[in-house]
Amino acid sequence: MSVVLVTGAAGLIGAESVRFFSGRGFKVVGIDNDMRRYFFGEEGSSRGNLARLAEHCPGFINHEVDIRDRSALENLFREYNTDIALVIHCAAQPGHNWAAREPLTDFDVNAVGTANLLEAVRLHCPKAVFILTSTNKVYGDNVNRLPFVELPTRWDLEERHPYFAKGVDEGMSLDRCMHSLFGVSKLAGDVLTQEYGRYFGIKTGVFRGGCLSGPGHAGVEGHGFLAYMMKCAILGRQYKIFGYGGKQVRDNIHSHDLVAAFDHFFQNPRAGEVYNIGGSRFSHCSLQEAAALCAKITGKRLDTVLVDEPRAGDHIWWVSDVSRFCNHYPAWRLTRTVEDILAEIYQENAQRWLTPLI
């Protein structure tokens, strides 16, 4: 039976991938050692997701392997060897501010861990497809040099700019800008994944995501803003907005839509390909607008506080141009808007989040 190997299997995109490919009849093998708990504390732990996957996905096996451990990865890949048809690499240190706390840990996880996995694929299953969940932060704050206009609830591009209609494409420069240390470590893994495709001919796809979201997200301050914002609205917590007057814009893609894109790539893979992937103009909002939607869905006003200083290297505005992926895979579609995503987060999590308070 063909094997789908998912790193970060209990995280938002990893768990969605496990459910998706398990439902398609693949043997799904996970790699997840709950580093999220180390990064973000108990509230960020992915243990609950792992337990739900074990219950609902027959045959799913998780290995508590650290992707920085080459020997452990070598043993795992040797066990499954050429049965591995697809590797979906979701494991990462995802926090901007956290990366500055432990830069070497951040780089070892995001860059060296990716190198370890790529080399294991090359040595043991070179015909497998390798998908990396990268990030729009690889473009750094070059994005902030675009011509913006300030509107009542958001920043937006000047209409005359080529990116206005569809968003930022893959031609945006990666150089001569601040990325954040997180952005740098992800960029290293991103470029290396491309190189293994172009140099060794491995079928590699890099997906540079905007904000990835969905009901399975263990959102915490500094990562997973839609889920964390909804959690704050439900629990009556204060939500901190870092800079730009809360008018910074993000596109948001539901985890299922992203994994569906992975599947399209898997069915017809390419070597060394790169895609900007996100909600595009179909599903995007400012933080102010997201807060208003949370209030609308919960019936509770969200208590927000503005911190004047933005996060280093953070974007004023981001909308992904998904045209390249759509041109290559025209059957793929975005299916959920920001409001759809927030409503689903509320419906599936409100009771669970409130339970400890009862």
Summarize, please.
By secondary structure, this protein is an alpha/beta fold. It has helices at residues 12-23, 35-40, 47-56, 70-80, 96-101, 103-124, 181-200, 225-235, 255-267, 287-298, 323-328, 338-354; strands at residues 3-7, 27-31, 61-63, 84-89, 129-135, 148-150, 155-157, 203-209, 211-213, 238-242, 249-254, 273-277, 284-286, 303-307. Strand 6 and strand 7 (155-157) form a beta hairpin.
Please describe the topology of this protein.
Elements: E1 3-7, H1 12-23, E2 27-31, H2 35-40, H3 47-56, E3 61-63, H4 70-80, E4 84-89, H5 96-101, H6 103-124, E5 129-135, E6 148-150, E7 155-157, H7 181-200, E8 203-209, E9 211-213, H8 225-235, E10 238-242, E11 249-254, H9 255-267, E12 273-277, E13 284-286, H10 287-298, E14 303-307, H11 323-328, H12 338-354
Parallel strand pairs: 1-2, 1-4, 2-3, 4-5, 5-8, 8-12, 9-11, 10-14
Antiparallel strand pairs: 6-7, 11-13
Helix pairs in contact: 1-9, 4-6, 6-7, 8-10, 8-12, 10-12
What features would you describe in this structure?
The chain is α/β, with parallel strands linked by helices and about 350 residues long. The protein has a single domain, classed as 3-Layer(aba) Sandwich (Rossmann fold). It has helices at about 10-25, 35-40, 45-55, 70-80, 95-100, 105-125, 180-200, 225-235, 255-265, 285-300, 325-330, 340-355; strands at about 5, 25-30, 60-65, 85-90, 130-135, 150, 155, 205-210, 210-215, 240, 250-255, 275, 285, 305. The strands form four sheets. The chain has a seven-stranded parallel sheet, with helices on both faces. The chain has a three-stranded mixed sheet with strand order 9-11-13. Strands 6-7 form a two-stranded antiparallel ribbon. Helix 4 (about 70-80) packs parallel to helix 6. The longest helix has 22 residues, at about 105-125. The protein is globular and about 55 Å long.
